[in-house]
User: Fold this.
Amino acid sequence: MNTWIPAIHPSWQGTIPATLFIRNGETLHFEGAPLSHTALTELIQQFHNTHNDDTF
Assistant:
């Protein structure tokens, strides 16, 4: 395994694509598998509603 993979997220095996949401240096969400357009849109909306300021 490449040494940098766990630095991205401890549970990530290096599969691509992967989705990582970070805010102010904090990991908000990680998906180590492909997401459908619908699933990605729902996640974005969820985080937009949760963090409804301009920093997300």
